[in-house]
């Protein structure tokens, strides 16, 4: 409440009746907000036609469902491994693409490097890109270049740039100017200042952000096949839709192992970066 | 060396957008090998003067000759000239994530071939200069440590070593001790004095603490609103002069005993 009191002081100073703003409306605001929130939840619930008893009777069905997954059908292992590899390739090339794009757009979005008339629009552009879901981009890309991994790679590269370029810009803005000035004073050239002053300050952030984005790209690529943009998502869709649960089991195991492996590898690299 | 290390005539400077000038010096000479303290209240122009002498100030008026070269108000001096002035910063200005040795090596950048250094290749001379500089300030045992693991006093030693690695003829230190505790401050001042004396380097150190620096210099220059208001030996600097210099900034930062 103390912040609200301090907010009320300027209002009093400008001559507005202090009680009006400082006293009454703040006590209504939380109440109205709670009311709106409650209305939102009720609307979501009633509008969705949810039958709670289905949840209650689901225990048996889930057991049945799990039972039908066992034992995993390992005959599809080669197919599943091959399409996982394709997903990995999509994530790797998609990450490569977004790194290249971010190396251009990151500096342009950096406030300490680029004038305001340019970095603001670039920041807006990146925010817009972030706002478009990957699956939507992938569908558009499939429409543009046809089925297969290529639209997946393009979609990942496009979608991920929205975040990665922002991270790069932040890494650039976090660079301390003082050491660079010191190198300048010592007679360093522009490239020397970049290499020995700026780069060591941002390199760990850049590498960490890139790895993080790669991990996200990998996860998000898993479902790209659903819209025909390549990788394991295609089989996820086919096996689930056709109730081949033993194959789904194999697929799930491979995907989980795959994601854990990549996370372990990333964790190791991150620890090496300190 | 023929001529003075520093020769300023009718020098004035005003920051862009400021209505008041930051520097107005009719004449100032500092001879090679001198050790000088630059004092004055906050905002008196100490940093501005030191930046000018380091060749980092543009668009000044008047004549400034530093280490035999007339500074051009329109152009950044060459890499070769910039090596000759070493600058010690109040906030150390080190690359925190790098090792002590790399930071000291950075002092050699102006003296190396730019392309070779980008590939990480430094000459024997460079490595010798780095070892000598680290030895001079007593940080050999820290060489492999990262700077962000060091104390303030250790950091300032690294920064001084970086300057010494440059092989400068003029050492400029902008409030090098204001971030340090009194004991460390004494040690750093002694270090600056000894290194300058041993290498025959001209030393100009600015400080808020005239009593502390008096032991290490042969001359005081006091600035007030960009003007030189005192220039003479430490003995000639009387308490009332100090009060005059600092009066507009409130109490004298350090009690004069
Ligand atoms: N980058 C700057 N832009 C504008 N004015 C500045 C800048 N740096 C310093 N000044 C002004 O110039 C004057 C001298 O500053 P400075 O040389 O930093 O003084 P000191 O180092 O003695 O504290 C002050 O009035 C200060 O406000
Ligand atoms: Mg200053």
Characterise this structure:
Chain A has a single domain, classed as MetI-like (MetI-like fold, Orthogonal Bundle), CATH 1.10.3720.10. Helices cover 82% and strands 0% of the residues of chain A. Chain A is globular, with a radius of gyration of 26 Å. Chain B is α/β, with parallel strands linked by helices. Chain B has nine helices and ten strands. A six-stranded mixed beta sheet of chain B has the order 6-7-8-3-9-10, sandwiched between helices. In chain B, strands 2-1-4-5 form a four-stranded antiparallel beta sheet, with helices on one face. The termini of chain B are far apart. The relative contact order of chain B is 0.18. The interface between A and B is medium-sized, with 20 and 34 residues. The complex binds adenosine-5'-diphosphate and magnesium ion. The site of adenosine-5'-diphosphate has 11 residues of chain B, from helix 1.
Number of domains of chain A: 1
Rounded to the nearest angstrom, the radius of gyration of chain B is 18 Å
Report the oligomer. heterodimer
Report how far apart the termini of chain A are. Answer: 41 Å
Content-based structural category of chain B: alpha/beta
| CA-CA gap between termini of chain B | 39 Å
Most strands sheet of chain A: none
> What is the average of the pLDDT values of chain A?
85
**Basic shape of chain B:** globular
Which outline of chain A best applies? globular
Report the helical percentage of chain A.
Answer: over 70%
Q: Which bin fits the share of residues in helices of chain B?
A: 25-40%
Ligands, deduplicated: adenosine-5'-diphosphate, magnesium ion
User: Which structural class matches the secondary elements of chain A?
Assistant: mainly alpha
Strand content of chain A: under 5%
Instruction: Please work out how many helical segments of chain A DSSP would assign.
Output: 12
Q: Are there runs of chain B of 5+ residues with pLDDT below 50, and where?
A: none
Radius of gyration of chain A, CA atoms, in whole angstroms: 26 Å
The CATH architecture of chain A can be given as: Orthogonal Bundle
Largest sheet, strands/sense/barrel of chain B: 6 strands, mixed
């Amino acid at each position: 409440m103390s912040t609200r009191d301090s907010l009320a002081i300027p209002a009093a100073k400008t001559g507005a009746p202090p009680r009006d703003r400082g006293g009454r409306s703040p006590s209504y605001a939380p109440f109205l907000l709670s009311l709106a929130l409650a209305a939102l939840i009720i609307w979501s619930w009633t509008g969705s036609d949810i039958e709670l008893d289905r949840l209650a009777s689901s225990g048996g069905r889930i057991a049945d469902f799990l039972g039908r997954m066992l034992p995993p059908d390992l005959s599809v292992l080669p197919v599943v491994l091959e399409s996982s590899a394709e997903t990995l390739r999509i994530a790797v090339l998609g990450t490569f693409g977004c790194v290249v794009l971010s190396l251009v757009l990151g500096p342009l979005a950096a406030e300490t490097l680029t004038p305001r008339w340019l970095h603001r629009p670039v920041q807006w552009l990146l925010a817009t890109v972030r706002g478009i879901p990957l699956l939507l981009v992938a569908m558009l890309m499939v429409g543009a270049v046809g089925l297969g991994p290529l639209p997946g790679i393009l979609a990942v590269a496009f979608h991920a740039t929205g975040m990665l370029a922002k991270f790069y810009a932040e890494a650039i803005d976090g660079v301390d100017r003082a050491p660079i000035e010191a190198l300048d004073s010592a007679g360093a050239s522009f490239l020397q200042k970049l290499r020995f002053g700026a780069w060591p300050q941002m390199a760990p952030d850049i590498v960490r952000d890139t790895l993080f984005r790669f991990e996200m790209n990998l996860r998000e690529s898993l479902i790209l096949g659903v819209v025909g943009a390549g990788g394991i998502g295609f089989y996820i869709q086919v096996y689930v839709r056709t109730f081949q649960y033993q194959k789904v089991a194999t697929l799930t195991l491979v995907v989980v192992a795959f994601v854990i492996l990549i996370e372990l590898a990333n964790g190791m690299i991150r620890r090496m970066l300190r | 060396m023929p001529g003075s290390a520093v020769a300023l005539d009718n020098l004035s400077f005003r920051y862009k957008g400021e209505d008041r000038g930051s520097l107005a010096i009719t004449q100032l000479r500092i001879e090679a090998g001198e050790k000088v303290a630059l004092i004055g209240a906050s905002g008196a122009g100490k940093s501005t003067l030191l930046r000018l002498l380091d060749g980092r100030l543009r668009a000044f008026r008047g004549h400034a000759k530093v280490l035999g070269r007339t500074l051009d108000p329109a152009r950044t001096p060459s890499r070769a000239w910039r090596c000759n002035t070493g600058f010690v910063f109040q906030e150390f200005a080190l690359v925190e994530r790098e090792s002590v040795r790399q930071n000291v090596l950075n002092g050699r950048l102006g003296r190396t071939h730019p392309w070779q250094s980008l590939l990480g290749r430094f000459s024997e001379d460079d490595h010798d200069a780095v070892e000598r500089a680290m030895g001079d300030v007593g940080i050999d045992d820290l060489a492999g440590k990262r700077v962000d693991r060091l104390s303030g006093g250790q950091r300032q030693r690294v920064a001084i070593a970086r300057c010494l690695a440059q092989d400068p003829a003029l050492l400029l230190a902008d409030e090098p001790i204001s971030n340090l505790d009194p004991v460390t401050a004494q040690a750093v001042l002694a270090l600056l004095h000894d290194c300058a004396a041993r290498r025959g380097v001209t030393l100009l150190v600015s400080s808020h603490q005239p009593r502390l620096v008096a032991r290490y210099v042969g001359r005081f220059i006091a600035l007030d609103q960009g003007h030189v208001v005192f220039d003479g030996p430490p003995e000639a600097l009387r308490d009332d002069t100090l009060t005059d210099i600092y009066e507009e900034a409130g109490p004298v930062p350090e009690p004069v005993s």
